[in-house]
Amino acid sequence: MATQAFQALLQTCKHVVVLTGAGVSAESGVPTFRGSGGLWRTWNATDLATPGAFVRDPSLVWEFYNYRRELVQRCRPNPAHLALAAFERKVTEDGRRFTLITQNIDGLHAAAGSRNVVLLHGSLWDVCRADRHGMKASKPCENRKQPLVPALEGKGAPDPATMAADIPREALPRDDKGHLLRPGVVWFGENLDPDVLSRAQQAVDDADLFITVGTSSVVYPAAGFVSQVAARGVPCAEVNLESSGATASCKYTFQGRAGEILPDLLEVSNV
Ligand code: OAD
């Protein structure tokens, strides 16, 4: 019944906004941040994704990102990504609006064919200059070369017994003027790009149907979107393996794997 009621809303809504997190890419083989799979060597992924970690040990942070780039390069969009892209095509062909806000940096939504995507936390394929505090000192730009420098070749194995590579600074990724580069993603302790945040917020304010998929909903500002939408009386739905910080705000909850639920739920399994 809940499914039918939700699907009726999908037919009539004017602007559907979908927020995704790491869970949407889990079935593609990209590890999530929390729960099992969140560790790299002995570190939590979240300990290395900070400007402070980069200042202390840029070689270690680059090893970690080299590993992630290597891994994600081999991953393909799964049925959840493909269903969202097919649903966007269907909605936009009807002259309605669709916005996908993702916290993921893996690029798998674009690879699946999604078009109107807001990359809240940036892209794993971007690099930028780092200042002496490890903060961004230039606008991130794409560099898909892998590895980025010869010194990173084969570096970043996640096994806890792996010795740190301790790559000298001069052999780490640098721009053409010799400035040290860092990953162009948003780290803990950093603000989101204001233009990106404003695009996301506009969609959140305009949504008349909101779906959150595969996010634990603990990292702000994304974690606050669903309650903002729900507070306007707009129906919200969640697709997740388990309950999350968003569940209480959602009228519709669909528990299970996103790749199994979304194609049928969005009625795009035959598209
Ligand atoms: P988390 O790792 O915190 O949460 C993943 C969520 O996906 C959990 O709620 C799981 O239950 C759910 N999940 C796992 N597999 C799933 C599947 N196959 N189908 C459906 N749901 C599934 O990841 P995020 O919420 O994305 O930020 O994390 C938010 C942010 O915290 C990340 O973007 C990153 C991280 O620190 C930065 O790096 C700034």
Structural features, described:
It is a single chain. With 271 residues, this protein is an alpha/beta fold. It has two domains: 1-30 and 78-124 and 191-271, Rossmann fold (3-Layer(aba) Sandwich); 31-74 and 125-184, 2-Layer Sandwich (SIR2/SIRT2 'Small Domain'). The protein contains ten helices and eleven strands. Strand 4, helix 7 and strand 5 (117-119) form a beta-alpha-beta unit. Helix 6 packs parallel to helix 10. It is elongated and about 60 Å long. 2'-O-acetyl adenosine-5-diphosphoribose binds at residues 21-23, 26-27, 32-34, 46, 49, 103, 121, 186, 188, 214-216, 219, 239-242, 244, 257-258. Residues 21-23, 26-27, 32-34, 46, 49, 103, 121, 186, 188, 214-216, 219, 239-242, 244, 257-258 line the site of 2'-O-acetyl adenosine-5-diphosphoribose. Substrate binds at residues 65, 68. Belongs to the sirtuin family. Class III subfamily. Keywords: Mitochondrion, NAD, Transferase.
Strand order of the largest sheet: 5-4-1-9-10-11
Total helices: the number is 10
Within the CATH hierarchy, at the fold level, what is the topology of the largest domain?
Rossmann fold
Report the uncertain regions: none
Main β sheet profile: 6 strands, parallel
Rounded to an integer in angstroms, the radius of gyration calculated over CA atoms is: 19 Å
Count of DSSP E strands? 11
Structural shape = elongated
Helix content: 25-40%
Mean pLDDT: 96
- Assembly classification: single chain
InterPro entries: DHS-like_NAD/FAD-binding_dom (IPR029035), NAD-dep_sirtuin_deacylases (IPR050134), Sirtuin (IPR003000), Sirtuin_cat_small_dom_sf (IPR026591), Sirtuin_class_III (IPR027546), Ssirtuin_cat_dom (IPR026590)
Active site: 121 (proton acceptor)
Organism: Coccomyxa viridis
Binding site for substrate: 65, 68
